[in-house]
Specification:
With about 280 residues, the protein is α/β, with parallel strands linked by helices. The chain has one domain: Rossmann fold (3-Layer(aba) Sandwich). Helices cover about 50% and strands about 20% of the residues. It has eight helices and seven strands. The protein has a seven-stranded parallel beta sheet with strand order 3-2-1-4-5-6-7, sandwiched between helices. Helix 1 links the parallel strand 1 and strand 2. Helix 3 packs parallel to helix 4. About 40% of the residues are buried. The chain binds NADP nicotinamide-adenine-dinucleotide phosphate. NADP nicotinamide-adenine-dinucleotide phosphate binds next to helix 1 and helix 6. It is found in: Cytoplasm. It holds the Pfam family adh_short.
C-alpha cells in the first residue's frame, strides 16, 4: 500500500456484485486512503457494507471514509435530478475533506453497477413501449445522468492544469449481452449495448483530461440475479445451460470476478472505452 487517496462511488452497493467490488477494492487497495460513496435504495444494507469496510480498514491500516446515499431509486426519473445532486454532494463533501486534510484524492472512480434484467419471459413482440421506457429510464437514462454529473463535477474539482496527477475512471458493469444477442434478452441487451457505446464516446471526448472508461462484463455470477434468470428466462436452450452451470458449480464467484476488475484498474493497462470480459483476463 502506498500513499494515495481514491474516491469510489458505487451504485447498487448494498448487495450482489456492487458490495463485492466495494470490499475487494479495499482488500486489494494500492493506496492507503479510500473514500466511498455507496448508493442505492436500501439504507440498512448500504450502511452494513460501509461499517464492514471501516472495520476491514481498521484491521489493515487503511483509512476508510464513506457516506451512504440511500433511498435512491434509479428507475424514478421524477426524482433523478435530486438524487444525482445528493450523490454528487456526498462526493463533494469527501473531496472537500480530502483537500482540508491535505490528503488530496488522486483517483475518482464511478462504478455503474446497479442494473435490472427486464422481463426475460418475453420476446420482443410481447414488449410494450411503456415497459421499454421504464427499463431504459433505469438502465440507460439514469446511467447517463450518473456519468454526466460525475464527470462534470470531478473535472471541475480537479482541473488537469492544477491536478495533473489526478485520474478519473468510469466503469460500466456490462455483460456478454452488450456484444452478443440472445433470445429473450431484448431490453437487457439494448441497455448494456447502449451503456458500452456511451462509455466509448466518453473515452474519446475526455482522453485529454486523464479520464478512462471501462466496460467490464463480470461473467455469469453465482448470485440472486442469476437465480432470477433461472426462474424467469423463457428460452429453454439457454435455461438448460444456466441450470447446468448452476448444478455443476461453474457459475462465477462474485469475489473472483470483482478481483479481476480491481486488478484491471490497478494495472491500468486497459484501452479506454474497451469491453473486457471476465473470461478474457
Ligand atoms: N448476476 C450476473 O450473472 C451478472 C452477469 C453479467 C452482468 N451483471 C451485471 O452486474 C450488475 C450487478 O448485478 P448483480 O448480479 O449484483 O444483481 P443483483 O444481485 O440483482 O443486484 C442489483 C443491484 O442493483 C440495485 N438496484 C436494483 N434496482 C434498482 C433501482 N431501481 N435503483 C437503484 N438500485 C437498484 C439493487 O438494489 P436493491 O437491493 O435495492 O434491489 C442491487 O444493489 C448489474 O449491472 C448486472 O446487469 C450481472
Amino acid at each position: 500500500m502506498t500513499a494515495g487517496h481514491h474516491l469510489i462511488i458505487i451504485t447498487g452497493a448494498n448487495r450482489g456484485f456492487g458490495a463485492s467490488v466495494a470490499h475487494t477494492y479495499l482488500e486489494s487497495s494500492e493506496v492507503d486512503t479510500l473514500s466511498y460513496v455507496l448508493v442505492g435504495r436500501n439504507q440498512a444494507g448500504l450502511q452494513t457494507v460501509l461499517d464492514t469496510l471501516k472495520q476491514t480498514g481498521a484491521s489493515t491500516n487503511a483509512t476508510v471514509k464513506g457516506l451512504v446515499v440511500a433511498n435512491v431509486d434509479l428507475a424514478d426519473t421524477d426524482k433523478l435530478d435530486a438524487n444525482l445532486a445528493r450523490i454528487q454532494e456526498a462526493a463533494k463533501q469527501l473531496r472537500d475533506e480530502s483537500l482540508q486534510s491535505k490528503n488530496v484524492i488522486t483517483k475518482s472512480i464511478l462504478v455503474n453497477n446497479a442494473g435490472s434484467l427486464g422481463d426475460l419471459s418475453k420476446t420482443v413482440k410481447e414488449f410494450t413501449w411503456q415497459e421499454t421506457r421504464k427499463y431504459l429510464d433505469f438502465n440507460v437514462v439514469s446511467f447517463v445522468g450518473l456519468c454526466s454529473t460525475f464527470l462534470k463535477d470531478t473535472l471541475a474539482a480537479f482541473p488537469k492544469a492544477q491536478y495533473p496527477e489526478h485520474k478519473t475512471v468510469v466503469i460500466g458493469v456490462s455483460s456478454l449481452l452488450a456484444v452478443q444477442p440472445f433470445s429473450n434478452w431484448g431490453h437487457y441487451a439494448a441497455g448494456k449495448a447502449a451503456r458500452d457505446r456511451f462509455l466509448g464516446v466518453i473515452a474519446l471526448e475526455e482522453k485529454g483530461n486523464n479520464v478512462k472508461t471501462l466496460n467490464y462484463a463480470p461473467g455469469p455470477l453465482d448470485n440472486e440475479m442469476q437465480a432470477d434468470v433461472r426462474a424467469t428466462l423463457g428460452d429453454k436452450e439457454q435455461l438448460e445451460i444456466y441450470d447446468g452451470m448452476h448444478k455443476a458449480g461453474s457459475l462465477v464467484k462474485m469475489d473472483d470476478s470483482s478481483k479481476k476488475l480491481v486488478l484491471l484498474l490497478k494495472k491500468d493497462e486497459f484501452d479506454s472505452g474497451a469491453h473486457v470480459d471476465f473470461y478474457d483476463v
